[in-house]
């Protein structure tokens, strides 16, 4: 890669790692919150899902702002704000305060993806490769965040663990400010009246939603539902497996489910890289179809292998981590191919409205299913979601 591409990778991968550090540490606290606040899976899933939803609901705003003013300032603000939001989570003494703090975190987290992805799509020469490294960087946070969280929960209470996790955000923002690169995009229009700006944005957004982009939007919405429905309660689902019984070690109880969950996320690093590189060699929609079909099959297989033994269970978990994260750079390239270059910020804004906003319903759905049914039913629902997504991508290929 050229020097500019390398520095774009450094800056965006740092922020991406931070986002996923927080996003995927949260599921490890869910069981603690359910016990500490005497709340059901349905209630905690809905509260957490609201914070996750705001990540998507705020994404179109971030997309518009990144088209107008550039991405760098938004990304820096997102890093600092996520740290502040997590610090507020550490002060929660009940479900209501937890929900409010999660909304603060979600509002700042919503700024990252549209700004970061539009920066890459408009400023990188080797776009697919930069997307791959960006995704792999995000998965460093995806793996490290839950691992650090699991280790912290062995030695300190959850409030202190959350507070300590807030610190890296401020360090990352400082490091990011020292990375230099040439960014394309952002035409400061602050002098334009609010009414004119809203009318312009509405018109451009309507133009964006042609047939192909709309179908891609729905496919990503379904992927987001699968993603959130799978990961939000996965540590608790794994903990119920007869193959993953807690063990005593050095006077402490170790829950192997937390480490299988972390391993699943770690394998996602390789999945992100492979998915991004494949889009430089294979049509992105072909790869997207294959990913959805594989996710459907793994969802069907999970309840079966969960009762067979630890080796098959871990194998399916690792495959899930590889494919669910390998899909991310694939749909990012799909969006880049189906949106005009000057609308990439808005296109990624709406993409993450689908992925994290509407897709966040997966957390609530998972909590409700687990409250009133079983994990086998949950994985059956996820299999149907993935199969439906496969159908939408097949439709996209014909447009």
From TrEMBL:
GO molecular-function terms, A-Z: transmembrane transporter activity
Gene3D superfamilies listed in its UniProt record: MFS general substrate transporter like domains
Domain Major facilitator superfamily (MFS) profile: 1-399
Regions annotated as coiled coil: none
GO CC terms, sorted: plasma membrane
InterPro entries: MFS (IPR011701), MFS_dom (IPR020846), MFS_trans_sf (IPR036259)
PROSITE patterns assigned to the protein according to its UniProt record, in alphabetical order: MFS
Pfam families: MFS_1
Keyword entries, A-Z: Membrane, Transmembrane, Transmembrane helix
Top-rank taxon, per record: Archaea
Listed PANTHER family: FOSMIDOMYCIN RESISTANCE PROTEIN
Protein name: MFS transporter
